[in-house]
Amino acid sequence: MESAQYQTYYGIHLNDHTEIWGGNNYNKILVKSYPDENLSTTGSTDLTDPVDFLYPPLIQNAYSLDGVAEGHITLYNHTGSSATFSDYTVSIKKVAEDGTVTDLASHTESFATSRTVTASNYYTLPIFVNISKQKVKAMEKLLLRISVTVDSGTLSLSHENDSSTSDIKIKIPYARTG
To answer: What is the pTM of this model?
Structure first.
């Protein structure tokens, strides 16, 4: 059995850079290392809708993902009162040049009782997504989608451009070819 080669990505939002792919604009992107801290960024996004992070480069002609994608995401409560959530879903997708989005793998974690994030605090959640031999073609890019069911209050997904506290970190397993 061959082992996967892992690549680590971090999710950030750049205010002065837009990736256009498949007819959509992406300011939220995945990077291999944090860019300069002086870049204009947005530190969080309210979790009213799913949040997408595009990996801008085309990786190679064609490749496969196979193994467990793992890492973490961080929620932030920027309000003056507590907020609760009951589940979250992390999906790895591919986006074709024509905008077609295909789910490669996803994982939902549901809690028997809602989790509470107190005012002005963070809550970090693990990511473990099993990916089984999913092919990605030459003109397709990777997309990380994060969804959280907020039951009460307001929560945001934190994505600071800060290497000292990585808010969104995911290791993607690339299958060896040969």
So the answer is: 0.94
